Amino acid sequence: MASEQWFMGPLPLPCPGETPPTDGSEAGPQPCGDPRWLMSPGRPGDPLEPLLEAPACTPSPEEPLAPDPGPVPTRLPLDTMFSPITEQLRYLLSKADDFQSYLLYSRDRVQTEQLAKAMPTFLQMCEPYFLYLEAAARSVPPIHGALQELVRKGLLEVSQQLTLRLEQLVLMYASFGLVDMEETDPLSSISSFFCGRFSLSPTHEVSIFRYCAPAAYTATRFPRYLYKKMRWNLETTLEPSGQGQHSRVDYYFLCYRDTWEDSGKTLANSCPQIQKLWSIGRWVPLGPAEDDLYSWILCPQPPGDYQQLLTIGFEEPSHMLATDLLVQILTGQAGPARPPSAAGPAAWAAQGS
């Protein structure tokens, strides 16, 4: 088990567009446990500063999760091993609870709107923790050696618990009209948030994003009635060339399709038949041409098809299971991938029948 020096200092908040840090660099006190942290000294009643204090206990991927095998046969209990991780989870969940409490019980509209504007910063504050959990559990080769399946599952369950809580918080603020979740305005909306990254090989890295609410696959809803719930960015580092090292990004999605819409019936007349067919697929770009910058500027959203790789069924997979299935697809364990869809809506209707 790594020493408590993992959690000696708060984490700096990452700036938008930057890769979030994976360990702390400054020492600072842990605000947990002191009821006075809710009020900012010098600014009575302002909830922003204390709510967005960086957590002081995010583990670093550089540190081992468990001691290296050695001559000492003693093993730490699993609860002891996970104690720093669960403490950090409780800290972040308590921050989410504070955001929720201000929303539900505060009568100060200005403060509530300030918290809504601070929501992206709070989501960024959770990113280093997500980075640690997913990288420690999934990276190949594992950062900490051969992790036992029990430990791996424990790390991923913690990641999933925090993901669902943040999603719930954003949805609650959106229900009050304080947060915009429209994907068409990424600069001022929270349509999705980052929740981890791991490596499949030295040249392949996967980043995980969760949509707070189902979003249309494309602005024109083609393929028809397809909605996305998760996105994975697969970044492949290409061989160095004369111009240096390059990378390519492919996009994979967890989507569902409303089968009742294929039947042509109205929602009121087809309630018994409403089902969501879940699948994992890859974004297939249809244009504009990669070398035509002018076309990209004029294009409001690049058109794309959906290459369905795996049909899951009518039950939504958990956040953890969906990523497990993607890993199986990418490593060739889920069988051969289907060819890209070329028939558009007709092909989708046939697949759902």
Biggest β-sheet, characterized? 6 strands, antiparallel
Helix content: 25-40%
Number of domains: 2
Mean pLDDT: 74
**CA radius of gyration:** 22 Å
First and last CA, distance: 53 Å
Question: Which shape, going by the Cα principal axes?
Answer: globular
Strand content: 15-25%
By DSSP, the count of extended strands is 6
Low-pLDDT runs of 5+ residues are 1-45, 336-353
Q: For the largest sheet, list the strands in their spatial order.
A: 1-2-3-4-5-6
Helix-strand sequence: HHHHHEEEEHEHEHH
Counting helices, strands and paired strands, the structural category is: alpha+beta
Count of helix runs:
9
Region (Disordered): 1-69
Protein name: Chromosome 19 open reading frame 67
Structural commentary:
It holds the Pfam family DUF3314. It comes from Oryctolagus cuniculus (Rabbit). InterPro entries: DUF3314. This is Chromosome 19 open reading frame 67. The chain has two domains: 143 residues; 137 residues, no CATH class. Helix content is 33%, strand content 19%. The chain has nine helices and six strands; from the N terminus they run H-H-H-H-H-E-E-E-E-H-E-H-E-H-H. Helix 2 runs parallel beside helix 5 and helix 4 runs antiparallel to helix 5. 26% of the residues are buried. The N terminus and C terminus are likely disordered.
